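hey
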């Protein structure tokens, strides 16, 4: 609570890195405060697999952001929560991959981002295509782009 209060009062913080050991409720409160930082230039989020899409969108779209690192980040429901879905044949099956990777937010990424590191984000061929299309549409080229530990690169 004190950290959130300090973040709400801070108008000059430019760099935030958040690791993987924060409990979910605390993390979401802190990320909400980080999303409100007016001068945020560098953001690193490490190892969270159940982040709400709306909150992530607010973070990655900040117009002041120039460096973004998302390491082992997934959007939506936890990968441990399975959802029932109808397959093409009309049978109910378990969808064990109910979360999405961060490439689904690429159109929300701020144009101001110059350095983008998407590390161990569980990309597949379509995700790399989506990312490449985004880089081509940008008004200015990226200075750095990394897909480290993406062992499914086609």
């Amino acid at each position: 609570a004190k950290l959130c209060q300090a973040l709400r009062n801070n108008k000059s913080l430019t760099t935030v890195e958040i690791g993987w050991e924060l409990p979910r409720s605390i993390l979401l409160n802190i990320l909400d405060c980080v999303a409100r930082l007016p001068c945020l230039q560098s953001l690193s989020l490490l190892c969270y697999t159940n982040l709400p899409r709306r909150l992530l969108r607010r973070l990655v779209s900040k117009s002041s952001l120039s460096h973004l690192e998302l390491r082992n980040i997934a959007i939506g429901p936890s990968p441990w929560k399975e959802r029932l879905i109808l397959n093409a044949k009309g049978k109910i099956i378990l969808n064990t991959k109910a979360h999405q990777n961060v490439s689904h937010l690429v159109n929300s990424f701020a144009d101001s981002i110059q350095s983008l590191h998407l590390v161990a984000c569980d990309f597949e061929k379509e995700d790399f295509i989506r990312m490449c299309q985004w880089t081509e549409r940008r008004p200015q080229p990226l200075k750095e782009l990394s897909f480290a530990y993406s062992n499914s690169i086609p």
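The chain has four helices and eight strands. Residues 120 and 150 are 5 Å apart (CA to CA).
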